[in-house]
Structure prediction request, 191 residues.
Amino acid sequence: MQFFEWNKGGSHTKIGQIKADLNELKSGEYSTSGHDGVHVENFKIEDRATFLDYIMGGCEINVHVAIDFTQSNGEITKPESLHYMASEDHINPYVGALNSVLNVVKNYDKDQQFPVYGFGAKMPLLDIPSHCFALNGDYYKPECNGVKGVIQAYYKSIQRAALWGNTQFAPFLTRVTKYAEWQQKKMSQSN
Prediction:
């Protein structure tokens, strides 16, 4: 173990180190190095809950999806674009990532209704780029049914979207935070 003195400027100073196993720490017999050595007066061992512990304990997860529709992905008609689709069954990098990630996390989302948003595009009927639009077209009910529903909504949206400016992820995070607060409030009222 190494010990550092915290400095506000970020250049922390090492003040000592201990080489010890658990029994040595318990007995107080360990070797130290540093300014005046290090003396451990008290320590405790805590179990840390794992992801699996939370799931086994009944934790439910609501998976939200955000897809980058900014110009940095490249023009969708060009093969080098991350959104490029050569044909109906073409799996571009976004579809590959959606499949890979959602097929793992879907098992932890009980209803598998995934709110799906895009950011960084002008969508039909909007004069300005949006940094948090529902891919299914309903901002108040943005859920898509399962992995297949997410990918279908993505395919429809990418064909209508005009990729736009820079990445602004904060509106999506604000939306998800408000959703989580609403869910928490709803759960506490039902108890």
About this structure: The mean pLDDT is 88. The chain has five helices and nine strands. The chain has two domains: 2-34, 51-171. Residues 2-34 form one domain.
